Structures are given as C-alpha cells and as structure tokens.
Amino acid sequence: MRKLIFAITTTLLAATCAAAAAVVPHVGARYTGPTSAKVVNGFGDTVTFLTGRTTLKRFSFGTLGCFGYGTFPVGVDPYGTSIAQLTKNVPMTATGTFKIAPTIASYGGADDSIKLKASVVGQFSSPKSAKGIITLTETGANGGSCGPVKMTFTAALGGH
Question: What angle do CA 142, 148, 150 make, to 5 degrees?
Fold first, then answer.
C-alpha cells in the first residue's frame, strides 16, 4: 500500500512540475505582439520584450498616452514614433507570471513635461506566448493627470 501511495504521489508531483515548466518562456528570447490600442491610419500598436531567467527586459510598447496626441498624418505610424519603455525590468516568477507596480517609462511621444507611468501584469500561457494588461497614467507639468488607461496584449516568441 505504501508503494502505491508513493507511486501516485511521485506521479502527481512529476505532472505538476511538468505543467509548471510548460509555461516558462524561452530565456533570452524576443517576444512581440499586438495590443488592444486603437488602430490609427491602418497601424496597430505592438508590445516587445526580452526574457531573462526571472525578468522581462526592455519591455516597450507604442502609446498615444491618455492626454491625446494631436493629429496623425496619413501614412505615418503614430505608434512607431511614440514608444514607451519601462525603466525597470518586470519581475517574473518560476511559473511564468509577471507583474510590476506603476513605474516610470521613458516616452518619446510627448513633450518632456509629460511623465508616463505604466504597470504590467500577465502570464505566459505556453513557452511561446504570453498575455497581459498594461495600465498607463500620465501627469503634466501643470499638475494635470489622466488615467488609468488599460490595454491588453498578446505576445508570441519571435513576434508577428
């Protein structure tokens, strides 16, 4: 009877470990994919990051912010000129869950007086894909603020 219990316990433990390992991303890989931000002039927004053993590195995405961005010339990708990159790495657990509290993002899409903060939460659903939510807030030099604004994303190994 003890051998049977040991065998069942060992099998369940192995299955649990295999399931947990199944959601761990490829280390050192680039992931990219679309966000739920509005398509402008036929251009969609993209999220991109690199994976480390315990972090997502160089997490970036296009954003028009939440104050607005002005006009969008025809044929120009507004997200391509308005990239936000987190200034810190996003911590990731051994099971592929990742989360960071609101942190400063460097932002090339607005004047220098606007400060952008972003939080990220998500999960790898397989070693090749992840889903999550980016939440943005902005503050201006005049003390005005906007947000939180949320957008979802899906990212795949190698991207789209």
Answer: 140
